[in-house]
Amino acid sequence: MSLKFSHITLLLLCISSCKEQNKDHTVEQPNSIENKIENTKFQFIIDSSDVKGSVVIYDLKKDIFYSNDFDWANQGRLPASTFKIANSIIGLETGVIKSDSTIFKWNGEDRWLDIWEQNLALKDAFQYSCVPCYQEVASKINPERMNTYVEKLHYGDLHIDSLNIRNFWLEGTSRINQMQQIAFLKRFYGNKLPISKRTKDIVQKIMIIDTEKNYTLSGKTGLTIRREKFNGWFVGYIEVADNTYLFATNLEPLSSDINMNEFSKKRKSITLLALRKMDIIK
């Protein structure tokens, strides 16, 4: 897909010019977690990829977390497009998104990616990470309902009002950390969220990325740029024959002189390498 550079510049200026404090803050954990194991193999993968950050993998059956850096994992960051998971849930629960056959119609305006310049079904809008599509969803949900549902879902520490309803997950002071991402996904996967089975089934379906012989990979990436710094997410879960593993990867490039496309690919590739190092997949 080809990038429209004039719109990239506009998007980056929009994202990086957010009105926020100049320091990151740690989002408070609802519960302390003792079942944590440091995995140095994850750190080797990260160091070999010219990035810094953390991979967290959670073994659902054993109730154990593995990571190279739990301190990083507890730092709150903008959710970026990982919020499309929650946004889809809330959209379906409120009726803003009618069903999995809902079509987001393109209004003919130029968009950041060519692939967004078409009518998109829900799964495609999610998979292509169509920002304008989900801005439309958030606007129709409205700030009051969005805040109500975010609290019901116990999703991070989000600050939502009428001024930022179209971009609170991309810029501003909303935060979620990797441990909270996994806690949210665990409740979603385990049918512990206060949502309908229909909503869960639809969102699970649109989250599927790869279906291989020995596993099914589901998840969502995210990317933000704040003060000229890239921050990338990949969150989700992988289902194998006898277990499910949840993951949350958060990365930043070591250098400001980076290729955005290459950095974006590393979110998934590093996560898959970590899963292979644990012999979860071959």
TrEMBL record:
GO annotation terms (biological process): antibiotic catabolic process; cell wall organization; response to antibiotic
Q: Which Gene3D superfamilies match?
A: DD-peptidase/beta-lactamase superfamily
Entry-linked Pfam families: Transpeptidase
**Modified residue annotations for N6-carboxylysine:** K84
Q: What is its EC number?
A: 3.5.2.6
Catalytic residues, chain numbering? S81
Residues of the Penicillin-binding protein transpeptidase domain:
74-252
Does the entry feature the keyword Signal, yes or no? Answer: yes
Single GO term (MF): penicillin binding
- Membrane-spanning segments: none
Record's catalysed reaction(s): a beta-lactam + H2O = a substituted beta-amino acid
Q: Which family does it belong to?
A: Belongs to the class-D beta-lactamase family.
Q: Which NCBIfam families match?
A: bla_class_D_main
Instruction: Please report the name of this protein according to its UniProt entry.
Output: Beta-lactamase
Protein source organism: Maribacter aquivivus
Task: Provide the taxonomic classification.
Answer: Bacteria, Pseudomonadati, Bacteroidota, Flavobacteriia, Flavobacteriales
